[in-house]
Amino acid sequence: MDKAARKAAPKLRRDFGEISQLQVSRKGPSDFVSNADREAEDTIVEILQQSRPEWGFVLEERGIIEGKEGEPRWIIDPIDGTSNFLHSIPHFAISIAAEIRGEIVAGCVYQPLTDEFFWAERGKGAFLHNRRMRVSARRDLGEALIATGIPFRGHGDFSVWDRQVNAVAPEVAGIRRFGSAALDLAWVAAGRYEGFWEKDLSIWDVAAGVLLVREAGGFVTDYRGGDAKVMEGEIVAANGALHSKLHKLVAGALRKG
Fold this sequence. Notes:
Blueprint: H1 2-20, H2 29-51, E1 56-59, E2 63-65, E3 73-80, H3 82-86, E4 93-100, E5 103-111, E6 116-121, E7 125-128, E8 131-132, E9 145-148, H4 158-168, E10 174-176, H5 181-189, E11 195-198, H6 203-215, E12 219-221, E13 235-238, H7 243-255
Parallel strand pairs: 1-3, 9-10, 9-11
Antiparallel strand pairs: 1-2, 3-4, 4-5, 5-6, 6-7, 7-8, 11-13, 12-13
Helix pairs in contact: 1-2, 4-7, 5-6
């Protein structure tokens, strides 16, 4: 995963430089970004296929590539934070996870512009480069910085999010929306955020990040406190001291609907 992410990164850095100078094709910047997504994904797939030729893939751009029956599969988002990429905002990441028999066993989130490589293996911990990561030790919700996602045109339920943010905001030190769920979860694992909640994400957005948080000592559940919808992109993540508090605020807002 490390080799694949780093192999795709130089082209993404070059593409980001092009789009930041508006040197894009006649079809417009969205088409440019789509090409960047596909090319990065192709590079990652090529490297991973060399390593594990019988494994399958779940890909944001190309969908599912079946591997040999019963073999594990890779789950890949070549650019998580595409809107940031499109608007020349330097906050996006490559996300890769390995799934064996329905369980995420390894994952990485790599930020090409900052060269930050977050990675984890199930049962072996989470790391930033070679340094062990731990979730924040803060226990007071009033000192907590919480990340989230905000619905946008044609995506998400504004009324639910409005109730949730009205429930959470008065209780915390601040709420951030930076536009990459993979990085949000990696930053929870690194102790930069105390928590994160969002819904309507895709498996390639969250598979690596969920493992990062759990291996860094944090808790990840769906809005109702279970595991059923986590890989469907319904997530509340935080450290052990704050997860139940954040979860109660998010779930309580649902019940008010």
